[in-house]
From TrEMBL:
Alphabetized UniProt keyword annotations: Hydrolase, Manganese, Metal-binding
Alphabetized PROSITE patterns for the sequence: PROLINE_PEPTIDASE
Key word Acyltransferase present: no
Peptidase M24 domain location: 145-348
Cofactor: Mn(2+)
Protein name (Swiss-Prot/TrEMBL): Xaa-Pro peptidase family protein
Organism name: Candidatus Lactobacillus pullistercoris
Creatinase N-terminal domain residues: 3-136
Family: Belongs to the peptidase M24B family.
Amino acid sequence: MNLEKLQAWLGKNNQDIAYISDPITIAYFTGYEMEPHERIFSLVAFKDAEPFVFTPALNVEEAKASEWNGDVFGYLDSENPWEIIADKVKQRTNEFQNWAIEKNNLSVAHYQSLHEQFPNADFNGNVSPFIERIRLYKTPEEIKKLKGAGAEADFAFQIGFNAIKTGVTERSIAGQIDYQLKVQKGVMHESFETIVQAGANAANPHLGPTMNKIKPNELVLFDLGTMHEGYASDSSRTVAYGTPSDKQREIYEIDREAQQAAIDAVKPGITAEELDSVARDIITKAGYGEYFIHRLGHGIGKDVHEFPSIVQGNDLVLEEGMCFSIEPGIYIPGFAGVRIEDCGVVTKDGFDLFTHTDKDLKIIPVNE
Ligand code: MN
């Protein structure tokens, strides 16, 4: 199991204890998922002692009822959680000199509180790179959940496309998508705030949704995803409301060609930056390189953005089981934006997509 890999890493790297503070990482190792807000929630793993989960007292019972079979300790709001953690550690082992923390996650204040309990210990160990590396490779169970999330994203697009009409706001369309995901699919929450952008708003990739009203003859960009059994989806489609102009159609078709070429190029052995170049070269040769203002893609799993990053400068060799997005975009300020995005998994000879919504330019008739 993954937790055994963490324990082996501790031994190999001369570390005694891993203090895991990112709730997503805790869920990855334990199967218990919870958002603690400002309270203390951690997994404490040892080189050679039994790991334990530490939670607020009000979460102890649900943690015990979860997939996690190890010990769970809690603290009341009136207690000092760091003293309790220190006591539990000292009951389990005499070796607490070298700690590995998640430097990508643990706040300075929490680090200082923990360090105060072990003033002579060394907290220089960083377990974040190891966790990022093992999370690169998805198991068949994880891939099944990612596909389940993808199917919900495909459903969401249909709701969104059907909600487009003259005068309706971007925010209203996003709200209808989120509502129907809950009502019809039982989705607990989206993997990020649903994005709906019309016309020039779509040239700002992460703007909105705003109170801008949809007008005829605009491109409308959707970027959305859900959480499904702890795994994320993330997909984008751009559609035409009314008759697209030649220029709208041109940038759409270039982006689509770039996205498809990158999908077709995925196989074990290609590097992340080579894959980015496949799409970027097509957009650049068509004269729109300066309008493709972000990397080609990002990893996906329990987090909507994780490793690998599909970006220039990353010579990581892509391998079977890695999951990521392919999402070239063309953003022309004051005019329009196009992005087409699917996530998938590297297979032994290609790329298996998690979303399947059609990519021929969809033209939605004007509905006043
Ligand atoms: Mn994305």
